[in-house]
Amino acid sequence: MEKNKVTVTINGSEYIIRGEESDEEMRVIAAYVDSKIKELSSHNIKLNPTFASVLSALNIANELFQLRKQYDELKGKVEDPLKQLTSLKTEHGVLVEENSKLTESTALFSKEIEKKDAELSALNEKYEKLYKEYAIKNEELSNSYREYELMRREKENKQKEFERVRVELSESKHKLIELQNQLLQNQIDIVKLKKEFDEYKLNYKGNKEAESV
Length: 213
Fold this sequence. Notes:
Blueprint: E1 4-10, E2 13-19, H1 23-43, H2 49-123, H3 128-212
Antiparallel strand pairs: 1-2
Helix pairs in contact: 1-2, 2-3
């Protein structure tokens, strides 16, 4: 892939830089470095250009390390929600399985009650004893239904908690991606600055040697 080439001005000197980034991106990087050097020089006019460039590089590197520290802290905060999410997924799977079994049991109870109800409708007068048994079965079904409702509400609460954690994880992930992108950009800035600084030292040394001759 052919690299882009652009001429930029840093601290009053023109440089030709090449990179895979767009011309605009490379100009923005150069402008950022230039602004840092000028900002530092404005506070101490006695600084020579070389020392100002070195101090600016150190300041930019410090910014990079601070961002990396923030990234590590955010990464630590994300790990706990991830563990909680894994635990919630496991609990959710268990609840789904239990709910499925409970649904099957409830369906069987319902069919049994329907059968008993039909028999009682036809034999109510002759089979009072059977009616009492039906009442007992009906009470058992009510208990089972109440248990089912309790499990359902517990499942809903777990689902809400799961959704809350999922949203928090998504937000943390976006923040992490933003920091990663910012960190990558700063790393690119440092590499660019180091390359430019090395070129500057070579040019400066060459000029000194030419002046000596």
